[in-house]
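Section 3.1: Structural characterization of target chains.
Under the original work plan, the team committed to producing a structural model for every single-chain target entering the pipeline before any wet-lab resources were allocated. The record below documents one such target. The sequence was received from the expression subgroup and is listed exactly as submitted; it comprises 184 residues.
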Amino acid sequence: MAPTRTRLLLLIAISCLVLAWSVAALVDSLAGRYLPFPGTAVGAIWLLALALGMWSWIVRPRLLRKPGVEPLAPEVAARTVALALAGSRVGAGVFGCYAGFGLFLLPDSSAVDAARSGLVVCAFSALGGAALAVVALWLERMCRLPEDNERKGPGGPSSPIDGRPEGLERVVRRENSRRPRLMT
């Protein structure tokens, strides 16, 4: 798996922003009211960011192979990478959506109470989405495999990922790519 590029997250956020602004404008023009923004949206996205942050903190010593700590099983490491990849994309999407809704509500927020309260929910939800994306990128960074020159000693790779003999180690190698790899 290739690491997440910032360009991809920006593309997701901008696409969701444009789509959310368009939906909000459409609902406002057809129904004559604003979309409802429940306060539970804020709690849900921040809870996801907190849970991912706690998981990152718990597995950090195992991913970084600290002395005296048993490394993660390959299956758990692969699932952790998938969780980090999904978290960064969901966080970027949530940020973009709520930023788009917030931008639509911004002009009316000084005069209309519903727009003002919706803008507050959108702002905190967008910040939660950004926090989720940042935590996911941090977890993904911890899941990266060392570079080939760091892993190779006199007899090949210096340490297998899961403590098994070197013949059972599964590492996806890309000869033509210089991008860092993620554990799989």
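Residues 1 and 182 are 6 Å apart (CA to CA).
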